[in-house]
Amino acid sequence: MAEIQTPPYDLIILGASGFTGKYVVREALKFFNAPTSPLKSFALAGRSQAKLRQALQWATHPSPPPSIPILIADTTDPLSLQTLSSQTKLILNCVGPFRLHGEPVVAACTSSGCDYLDICGEPEFMEKMEAKYHEKAIETGSLVVSACGFDSIPAEMGLMFNSRQWLPPAVPNRVEAYLSLESDKRIVGNFGTYESAVLGIANADKLQELRRSRPKRARPAILGPPPPKGPLIEHQKKVGLWAVKLPSADSIVVRRTLASLTENPHGLPAVNESAEWVEKRKSFWSTVKPAHFGVKIGTKSLLGILRLMMVGVFMGILARTSFGRWLLLKFPSFFSLGWFKKKGPSEDEVQSASFKMWFVGHGFSDSNLASQRNSKPDMEIITRVMGPEIGYLTTPIILIQCALILLSQRGNLPKGGAFPPGILFGPADLRERLQQNGISFDVISKSRLPA
Ligand SMILES: NC(=O)c1ccc[n+]([C@@H]2O[C@H](COP(=O)([O-])OP(=O)(O)OC[C@H]3O[C@@H](n4cnc5c(N)ncnc54)[C@H](OP(=O)(O)O)[C@@H]3O)[C@@H](O)[C@H]2O)c1
């Protein structure tokens, strides 16, 4: 019988020379060869040897860089991706926009059976990859998991954390998340995220088309009435924010996890799971109760919200024509009112930024109340997820923790398939790992609502 060869690398960071990629390298190095870490070997990959070398130097500065192999791969060259994916257990893909560059990487991983994680925040890409590669990934034993960054793990883990505070007989009905970005300096994002957002808006109808062509997913049974529509701008006094709906990937990814949970109420059976793990998985999911979920972005002043809405209007209108997109992409700083820059934030700007995401849950103190006519939630539980800067500190922390789970607990995860991160990593202690690495989850209050 032919011997199955273990690939030489535990993981490869593809797009390591990018703005986010280099921060991912810095985060990976913290765990490289540490005594209890499963990360014993890794390589950097991309299309420019010189840029990758610079990224490695930047990531280890002021220490000299360790000897990390550099591999050349281009997403326009399928053979280079095939070679890459045959050399590793796992690829961490940081090459975006994903709608432009992601599919060949997923195709290579699912063909060779290597696992794939990315930091994509583009719903159409995620759903398209699931539609096209899920079956192949099951067959070859490749796990394909998008959205392993700020999009959308704080939302996924944050909703689960809030939902698990509703102890029987209490049940949640809806959870609204309020994201607040904070800094003593300016809050700035890199062009890569901005470009991905512009292209996402431009192609919004493609996502609807894709969904219409796919079988409907299971809907979770949520107790109580549907959530009220609410005002366009909300003043959420409990968390001190003015807030408006955030059209991010978060609620879409959460919905996919809840659909997956409805189809698999005990979570996803794994390749090689022990009886102890099966027990843990089942007991974890038995405490997660589905709820309606939405995300809003908030600022302390009404003026801040009006500025955000202005950027949304610019992008919403201009992204729909090719000339408008050209303008948006040529002058990112102007059209985003300074929130996105071609060269990204400075190190100081990154270090001084942080986020808070408040989860305001409304539900019933007793599930029997939920089925009564005209029932209204009588209980509120507020929880909070808090961490450092979202794009270049929180995202690498999350991606690397997801990678370490894959490397250390592969037997507790399904053989293969394309899944949202929450359904895979929820019971695998991702929240606890994030907590140990600077992203905290706290219960803020539990109270009865006035009748
Ligand atoms: N989930 C989240 O919260 C989150 C956070 C941060 C970023 N992101 C996403 O991550 C993506 C990257 O953002 P970024 O700001 O880091 O962008 P970036 O600085 O432009 O980096 C892009 C990377 O992709 C590489 N690349 C481009 N075309 C390639 C090709 N044909 N073959 C191989 N590599 C190629 C670039 O290589 P070169 O250096 O050779 O140009 C670079 O390494 C975006 O889609 C963004 O939305 C998500």
From TrEMBL:
InterPro entries named in the record: NAD(P)-bd_dom_sf, Saccharopine_DH-like_oxidrdct, Sacchrp_dh_NADP-bd
Gene Ontology terms describing biological process: glycolipid biosynthetic process
GO CC, alphabetical: lipid droplet; mitochondrion; plasma membrane
Chain ranges of the Saccharopine dehydrogenase NADP binding domain: 12-145
A Pfam family this chain is assigned to: Sacchrp_dh_NADP
Listed SUPFAM superfamilies: NAD(P)-binding Rossmann-fold domains
Family: Belongs to the saccharopine dehydrogenase family.
Protein name in the entry: Saccharopine dehydrogenase NADP binding domain-containing protein
Organism: Rubroshorea leprosula
